Amino acid sequence: MRTRFWFQVSSRALAAHGTTTCISDPHEIANVSGIEGIRWLMAATEGIPVRLMYTLPSCVPASPYESAGATLTARDLAPLARDPRIASVGEVMNFPGVLDGDQVLLEIIELGQPAGSTARGLAVDGHAPELRGLDVCGYAAAGVESDHESLSAAEALEKLRLGMWLWIREGSTRNLEDLLPVIMEHTPERCGFVADDRTPGDLLREGDLDYIIRRSVSLGLDPIQAIKMSSLHPAQYFGFKDRGAIAPGYLADMLLVPDLHDFHPRRVYIDGRLVAENGKALFEAPTLPSTGIDAILHTIRLRDFDIERLRLPGHNGKAHVIGLVPDQIVTEDRLMEVEARDGCLVADPARDLLKVAVVERYGRGRVGVGLLHGLGLRQGAMASSVAHDAHNIVVVGSHDSDMALAVREIERLQGGW
What we know:
Blueprint: H1 7-16, E1 21-24, H2 27-44, E2 51-56, H3 74-81, E3 86-92, H4 95-99, H5 103-110, E4 123-126, H6 133-141, E5 146-147, H7 153-161, E6 165-169, H8 176-186, E7 191-194, H9 200-205, H10 209-218, H11 223-230, H12 232-238, E8 254-256, E9 267-270, E10 273-277, E11 280-281, H13 293-297, E12 317-324, E13 331-341, E14 344-346, E15 353-359, E16 367-373, E17 381-384, E18 393-397, H14 400-413
Parallel strand pairs: 1-2, 2-3, 3-4, 5-6, 6-7, 12-16
Antiparallel strand pairs: 8-9, 9-10, 10-11, 12-13, 13-14, 15-16, 15-18, 17-18
Helix pairs in contact: 7-8, 10-11
């Protein structure tokens, strides 16, 4: 779960839509602030009615080529594993590292094995788009148990047949329509829904897992199967033996829903307490704790940045361009005609061709510049420090001066978009 809200705020929206337990991979804050960031986040989210549980982030940094603010190893993470709020080893995004036998990464995966960090072991989450054949066999054999990045029905079915769990993502990036035929035809038990990277607007406008249930039912899925994929199946995967049923000995997490085909929770109970009714949370969002927050909120330190760092030397002709794919996290390599002025490549908004740069935020002074196609921005620039996974500043624009201004504004704000 990633909503881009502070959980103090998003918990009210989640409760209103019937979500009672969330699993969050804190690799975002960890890539910026390390183990101290994780500990601060866990302390900051105590006492909120909606349960927030965490994973042990396996991707800090996400790859050897990232410029992150921290590096975490199995030795750093092992003490956290014994916290009862830890649900799994977080998504293993560096699947090339797994296949290459990266020892640091394999030791983190081993934390999920029984007696690796806890007596019962932990689930190990995956992240492996388009990984097929012997490569996905090696990935699973290393101990990774699930994937939420499958892009096609054939890929999803292959992973299920290897014994992996399939999570169908319908966040602001969407795969439901492509993958639902696998569920409709084969009715596998090792599958569920995730609302990964759901933007605040989509969460408030559409909902959370309740929206995915409604959407899947509208596409023909049996509502009971859809509900199981949002409750029982995740509980089984994470080993939550006290969740997934309304029965003696289970947590009293319950939703009252008038119509299973139009899934809108009327009342939401967590631990037997009524926390939301008729789409409204019945609790106030607690304030953020002040202790340690300055170190979390002031982390952007630019070095030697000016407009000259956004120049992209080149000449007229064809160049490789990053191609955006609507509603998807993956991009394409596109070859396009480009124009140079004074020895540098320039944007051409009329053809939806823009400049893009990544400006490193941790005081090392690194800047990478390229070209981007498919965003639709006609003038000006936009920048964000919410940029998976190292969260350096990503800026896109039609002119270098606009891009430089946007970067400086992110620096002034100390983060945002």
